[in-house]
Design a protein that fits this description.
There is one protein chain. This protein is 40% helix and 24% strand. It is built from 8 helices and 7 strands; from the N terminus they run H-H-H-E-H-E-H-E-E-H-E-H-H-E-E. The protein has a 7-stranded mixed sheet, with helices on both faces.
Length: 215
């Protein structure tokens, strides 16, 4: 068995707690879910990267043809599969995979989703290029990402420079790298997408929701 990466091991270790904890901002989550749903079609073949315990994939599945939902953490996927079996949904496939492990030979997708993932990737540019290669021409890339504020600020500095590094040193936080919303949009565009819609959601740090279409 291949050894897990540090971050895969971290997310697997906390998977049971992650599944049990309530969503912090349920209103924001439901708004994101409905927005995403509005962009999907019944015939779509969808890929969700960084699916966690599968809640979003299972809620979207009745509205599309098929959802392939992946996560780097086996612990998360185990819980997701248990949920799928309990709900009896047959058009959802869960599997363990990091972003770059999604093979181009598996076919391309009408829509790729990455909710609360991009700020956790060590090489964002490479990941976005791979996501673009997996997306059909005219297909959608829909993401929601915790971002750095455009002008910094004391709260952001405290979180990014003190709180997160301390937690990482204690093994209580994964890799994190924040970019601003404007930088993220430019990176998505550089990967071959046209950004069509953006919206910000306030929380401890602001998240940017982006809908982009493959050029």
């Amino acid at each position: 068995m291949t050894a897990l990466s540090k971050d895969a091991a971290f997310w697997s270790k906390i998977s049971q707690k992650y599944a049990a904890d309530p969503i912090r901002n349920m209103e924001g989550y439901l708004k994101t879910l409905e927005l995403t749903k509005s962009y999907l079609k019944a015939e779509d073949n969808v890929l969700e990267i960084g699916c966690g315990t599968g809640s979003t994939a299972l809620l979207l599945a009745p509205h599309v043809a098929h959802v392939t939902a992946t996560d780097l953490a086996p612990g998360m996927i185990k819980i997701a599969d248990e949920k799928r079996a309990k709900e009896g949904l047959e058009n959802v496939t869960f599997k363990v995979a990091e972003v770059l492990e999604h093979g181009l030979d598996e076919g391309s997708y009408d829509a790729i989703l990455a909710h609360n993932l991009l700020h956790l990737l060590p090489d964002l540019d490479q990941a976005l290029e791979h996501i673009s290669a997996l997306t059909k021409p005219g297909g959608l890339f829909i993401s929601k990402t915790v971002c750095a504020p455009e002008s910094g600020g004391f709260k952001y500095a405290m979180i990014s420079r003190i709180a997160i590094p301390v937690m990482q040193a204690l093994g209580k936080a994964p890799f994190v790298h924040f970019v601003s919303g404007s930088v993220l949009e430019r990176k998505i565009a550089s990967a071959g997408f046209d950004v069509h819609y953006t919206a910000d959601q306030a929380s401890m740090l602001q998240s940017r929701y982006i809908v982009a279409q493959k050029s």
